[in-house]
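User: My collaborator sent over this chain with a note saying "see what the structure looks like." That's all I know about it. Can you take a look?
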Amino acid sequence: MKQDISKSIEACAAHYGEQADAMRTYLIEGEKQALSMTNRGPIRFDAEGNLAQDIQEAYSEYGFYVFEGVLGADELQDIDAELQQLRSTFPSEPNGKLTKDGKPALGADCKSLNLIWSKPLGDPLGGTELASGRHQVKLFEPQADKNAPEQAPFILLGSLQFSETCLHVYGHPQLLRVAASINGKDFAPFNESLFIKDPGIGAAVSWHQDGDTHWDREDFDEGMHGFNFMAQVYGSTAVNGVWVKPGSHRVGKIDIKKLVEEAGSERIEGMVPLVCNPGDVIICNRQLLHGSFPNCGYEPRVTVNFGFHRRSSVLDVRGAGMYSEPVIFDAALIEERSKVIGYAIDARKQRFPHEEPYQYQPFVESGKVFHWDESVTASLKDYNLYDLNI
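Assistant: Without extra context I'll predict from the sequence alone. Here is the result:
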């Protein structure tokens, strides 16, 4: 059952002044359209162990699919409890080294970028050159409540080095089977993060398409830049959730500024929100046009986000995004970055011993065996320096 977010819709619309009616209608109609689509349901596999054909076809058509009921109540409780503890380790300010209690903060001794901050209800990426300039326009930034903090965390990168419950989700056998069906049994990792959209604070993410590397390839197709899994801890709504343009993963690079001009506002035509319940996991093609409005409502959203590539999309390819110098993703680097898959599978096996753990084909072929314990945590420090960004 979807959440009743009527109060959040009204609160959100009220922030838009003269455009309140237009924003209210956009949110209501978008939610209605999203729930009418035929791309949601439990994960199902065929007799050969592949993702059910009708699911694959719907994912190919729309560019996303809502897998319902993937994470159980006990796992959601684990994540929620750890999130509360994790927040207590955040630095007291952007780039800070200490928590509010004066203790060493999360990521204080890391070389990699971990915690991204924003002013409440801001759009820190829109209209900037960050992330290769993919966020072409800046979304409206409503005025936050006077009691809101000056800055708040909204993305935690390299989340697997900080969160064992995120590692459990990453090793989910059904999700890894989906990845194998979509990207082949030798699928490669991408990156992992937590998106935090607190009520009245959570930042916007301006309209964009992920991916920087393969847009101009002659053999370009709908799966060239991989996909993200988006596991929802508290659910996702039209107010706090990601919006996408169905089918846009197939058309190549989009002129977002032109779409905004044609719409006469940031409310691009044809967008729908990713609406789902706690424990649902969305698979979202990275080439889809997508983004999210600032969370002016009352419901929180925390997304456990992680993605995978076809091995052919990254092998011997020059990396993009965070790399300041040319980096070629050779087989050795991909193998090193893939170790988190092995650790995640074993960590999940220990937490959920009743499940049949996933068998990752590259490890089966190489005979590599991974065992998760607390000592492994140190070896994951800065692992996201080797994210396979394309």
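A starting point for your reply to your collaborator: Residues 6-386 form a domain with the Jelly Rolls fold (CATH 2.60.120.620).
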